[in-house]
Amino acid sequence: MIPWLDGKAPFPPLERALLEPNGLLCAGGDLSPPRLLNAYQHGIFPWYASGEPILWWSPDPRMVLDPGEFRISRSLRRRLRSGRYQVALDRDFAAVIRACAEAPRAGQNGTWISREMQHAYWQLAQLGFAHSVETRLDGVLVGGLYGVAIGRMFYGESMFSLATDASKIAAAHLARFLVGEGYGMIDCQMNTAHLASLGAREIPRAVFMKRLRALVAVSWQPGTWPVDGASQPWKQN
Predict the structure, then answer these.
(1) With contact defined as beta carbons under 8 Å apart, do 112 and 47 qualify?
(2) Measured between alpha carbons, how far is 218 from 102 in angstroms, rounded to an integer?
(3) Cα–Cα separations (whole angstroms), residue 159 to 36, 112, 146, 165, 226
């Protein structure tokens, strides 16, 4: 039996998270900005199906990506250099999270990004905590991702692609932007082959939390990222 969150009750200690399913910590609560920000700062994130209670997770080990270790394949580098795709930050957060919710995914029926979730993260975007990266082809949105930034920590949430490598192009530009801004880690949450192909790896939750606490403690001001912050041409080396 997992704990139930009532009102403003604090999250249980991470040590109480289940081993199976890995990282399930508690249920209930709400998706208000204070609750979500508190969760992320403590290494916890929401993930649940529409119609279920809100479920909160903190898996062990944790999948993470050092922005400076983003892996670019030869084919992806060719597309980055081609100049055919335009990449922007925070131009249309609502369109990106909606596209992530609507994108078909192998082995999944429906989406966990419910309207309730979309509204919650849109609120975080309005407050300057949630951000989007958008890939366009001939002006049309064909890929992107969104996540949450606190201090110098970025928490990746979801991505979508309607054209070859469109989401990877967004991720590559995000990684380069984060390196330039001094971000130390991207939380990828769960282990997938796709994330591993980009350079993500698993680390023990205790190590993750130590790094997270240091990164979220960095003094900073939330706010919208510059739209052209990821638009510079890709180097030819």
Answers:
(1) yes
(2) 35
(3) 19, 13, 7, 11, 20
CATH of 63-216, one of 3.40.630.70, 3.30.1360.140, 3.30.559.10, 3.40.50.720: 3.40.630.70
Asked whether residue 56 carries a pLDDT value surpassing 90, the answer given is: yes
Work out the percent of the chain whose per-residue pLDDT is above 70: 95
Neighbours of 40 (CB within 10 A): 22
pLDDT above 80: residue 107: no
Which of 3-12, 23-32, 56-65, 87-96 is predicted least confidently? 3-12
Q: Where along the chain do its domains lie?
A: 4-59, 63-216
C-alpha pair distances (Å), 6 with each of 11, 28, 116: 10, 7, 18
* Confidence (pTM): 0.95
3-state secondary structure 93-161: HHHHHHHHHHCCCCCCCCCCCCHHHHHHHHHHHHCCCEEEEEEEECCEEEEEEEEEEECCEEEEEEEEE
Domain 4-59 has CATH 3.30.70.3550: yes
Query: What is the crossing angle of helices 74-82 and 166-181, to 10°?
Result: 80
Among 132, 119, 158, residue whose Cα is nearest residue 30: 119
Tokens 């131009």, located at residue: 91
- pLDDT value, residue 185: 98
Mean pLDDT, the chain, integer: 93
